[in-house]
Amino acid sequence: MIIAVDFDGTLHTGEFPAIGEPAQDVAEYMQKLHEDGHCLIIWTCRCDQKLIEAINWLIDKGIPFDRINDHCPEHAGQYPTNPRKVYADLYVDDKQVGPLPAWNDIYSYVSKQQVILAASE
């Protein structure tokens, strides 16, 4: 699956422009998602120096990612203009309808979706 994950308020506890502490269990479950073969896109409005700070924070905290505001390679050709809205199978964002689930619940949801997708193929 391709999973787009918001940065501010989703991966960390701070509020823009500050970067807070990692959200509870985020590094563990982002690592599991990455090890399970999911393409992880950091989906953020940050740019310039604020984006560099976010990238450095992710690296420092050991939170894996494959792309930032960009399509995974297998979909890059479908969207040659590279718009800000990236294609994903799932979007994880603190601004979703309802509260952001705990990261273990997010991981469980993705795992169940993978089983469903595999069964339908």
Would you kindly provide a brief summary of this structure?
Helix content is 38%, strand content 12%.
H and E string = EHEHEHEH
Q: Please give the number of β-strands.
A: 4
Supply Rg. 14 Å
**Helical element count?**
4
Strand order of the largest sheet: 3-2-1-4
CATH-assigned fold name: Rossmann fold
The total tally of domains equals 1
Looking at CATH, the homologous superfamily is HAD superfamily/HAD-like
Biggest sheet overview? 4 strands, parallel
In CATH, the architecture is 3-Layer(aba) Sandwich
The fraction of residues in strands falls at 5-15%
Overall 3D form: globular
In whole angstroms, how far apart are the ends? 14 Å
Attribute tags:
alpha/beta, Rossmann fold, globular, 121 residues, 4-stranded parallel β-sheet
What is the element layout, followed by pairings?
Elements: E1 2-6, H1 26-35, E2 39-43, H2 48-61, E3 67-68, H3 73-76, E4 90-92, H4 103-120
Parallel strand pairs: 1-2, 1-4, 2-3
Helix pairs in contact: 1-4
What can you tell me about this protein's structure?
The chain is globular and about 45 Å long. The chain is an alpha/beta fold and 121 residues long. The chain contains four helices and four strands. Helices cover 38% and strands 12% of the residues. The protein has a four-stranded parallel β-sheet, covered by helices on one side. α1 runs parallel beside α4. The mean pLDDT is 91. The chain has helices at 26-35, 48-61, 73-76, 103-120, and strands spanning 2-6, 39-43, 67-68, 90-92. The protein has a single domain, classed as Rossmann fold (3-Layer(aba) Sandwich), CATH 3.40.50.1000.
